[in-house]
Design a protein that fits this description.
This protein is of the alpha/beta class and about 280 residues long. It has eleven helices and 13 strands. A five-stranded mixed barrel has the order 8-11-9-10-12. Strands 2-3 form a two-stranded antiparallel ribbon. A two-stranded antiparallel sheet has the order 7-13. Helix 4 packs antiparallel against helix 5 and helix 9 crosses helix 10. The chain is globular.
Length: about 280
Amino acid sequence: MAIEHIVIPAAGRGLRMMPVSRAVPKELLPLADRPLIHYLAVEACLAGARELLFVVRKGATALQRYFEHDARLLADLRAAGRGGAADDLEWLHARGVRVRAVPQEHPRGLGDAILCARAAVGKTHFGVMLPDVWVHPPETGMPALAACFQRDAESSVLLDRVPAGEVQKYGIAATRRRPGGGLWLRGVVEKPGPATAPSRLALVGRYLLPPEIFPLLERAAPQHGGEIQLTDALAALLEEQPVQGLRCRGKVHDCGHPAGYMRAFTVATRLRLQSRPAD
């Protein structure tokens, strides 16, 4: 069972990255010589995705343009001695992954963004990748959830242990041991205080969800600012079916705020310099 569709919610205004995100979508900010969205696309391809569904503000086209095949540009890059950059762009195109924009009329939270992709996803399991989270190595992110689904045919979420003083920034999972190893979710709480958090295991932006999540999102009560929270629908889903919690074996970088982005940029630059010589 392959995961064909991966939803990437990208309709937010990037308030934590203002003012730069007013001019450049935060998903296109660079990590070394690639935009953040390139890293996510590679991770999605490694998970076996055949279609990336970008949930975007109406009229936004920058993300789709990045993935457009441009034979002239590739030829110009190679003629200029920038074969490495051409290879990076060609890698994505050569895999035949489709890119589709799904409009979100108003930013009403992560849950609503996912709900916007309902018709495109259909009645199959699908992935969700938050675009301001970089997981390295990429195999430890969505591909690990896809492998879990291939093995057990169960929904799953990626978890990472965060400092006690940061639990209020995340959805936090309550878990129990799964027979044979691993974890099952017992519950999820959105941005709890340190005194009430059930654990320090945070949901860090990688989900593999069943189509049954959509009616639960429809019924979820709007929270602060009218936002529909995915964690509310996940909590309801746990009453209907099991959901695995997979501990991330890599490094999770939150690129959605300036300090986290700068740390990720430094790490990505070092890795890129180590991986190949400059063109």
